[in-house]
Write a structure and sequence with these properties.
Layout (H helix, E strand, L loop, with lengths): L12 E8 L6 E8 L17 H14 L4 E5 L16 H4 L5 H7 L3 H18 L4 H10 L1 E5 L9 E2 L14 H18 L10 H15 L6 H9 L5 E2 L2 E2 H4 L2 H16 L3 H5 L2 E2 L2 H5 L7 E6 L5 H21 L9 E4 L13 H12 L2
Parallel strand pairs: 3-9, 3-10, 4-9, 5-8
Antiparallel strand pairs: 1-2, 6-7
Helix pairs in contact: 1-5, 6-7, 6-13, 6-14, 8-10, 13-14
Amino acid sequence: MPDAPAPFEGLGVFYLGKEVDPDTKELGDPVLYDSGDLTTHAFIVGMTGSGKTGLGVGLIEEAALDKIPVIAIDPKGDLGNLALTFPDLSPASFQPWMDAGEATREGVTPEALAEHKASLWRKGLGEWGQNADRIRRLKEAVDVTIYTPGSDAGVQVSVLGSLDPPPPEARSGEAFTERVDATVGGILTLLSVEADAMSSPEHIFLAKVVGDAWASGASLALADLIGALQNPPFETIGVMEVDSFFPARGRTGLAMKLNGLLASPGFAAWAQGDALDADRLFYSETGKPQVSVMSIAHLGDEERMFFVTRLLGEVLAWMRRQPGTGSLRAILYMDEIFGYLPPSANPASKQLLLTLLKQAR
């Protein structure tokens, strides 16, 4: 027989916990959050160890219970536990995740340690109103997928297989220019090329190649960029001849860097897997809502910046295709924003994040 529904259940109401008496530590009334307050954006700020990620995980799980899809960018590798939901809270469910070393240190068998952990979680979750039926509904409401770009440790996602154009209605104007600049900026960051969007020959040249192709609805691959550097598909950039603006020697150097990336053993991992498509990340092929955790802790700084830039560009394009709504439709969550939105520097991710913060609804 299922547990009785908790008194705080309700569509659009996120349960964040309970009030706690600071002196007696007794639990009081539930703390509820209106999901309508997340139709723009939110920051979670606090000292190290204060529970920022825990609060974020709680919000994601509450959204999942309401069948609201989530894309969660995980730079630190802390969100994988979202996939660990054990409705029965039985020792058998915990046992595969037990640390044999911890069992040895405690002087118990792994089976006994699993029994202890299961009992601990049953008691703790029960005190906070998280009964077995609620955990079961969470597991059934959404699919949780851990994506690992550039690695086969989780589900692979194709980031460099092709550079697909935005939809026809988004191939002009400021938004189009933003996406082109962000995409090119991410590629150059991946190549460790410092380039300014307003003055760098590398950035301006590639932005024109990408922009012209996308404006005509054509997809690109890295090989196409290499070919364009060797044989430019245009004669001038602005009013200057290509060879004057970006001499052949410089173009050849950049082409060599791109070719080195294309020929590297690790390139295949970036070109395989599910397409980097926001619709597919928010919903499975059967239409079921997803919590897509984009785990990037294993990547280097340049690779993280490249991936985040590509993902933000895709989410921004998806957002602009959606009709208006007064309710929460989806969540984009980033567990750590340090380095991606600095106050003075302008990494490739910054303009996309600012646009999302200004326009996301």
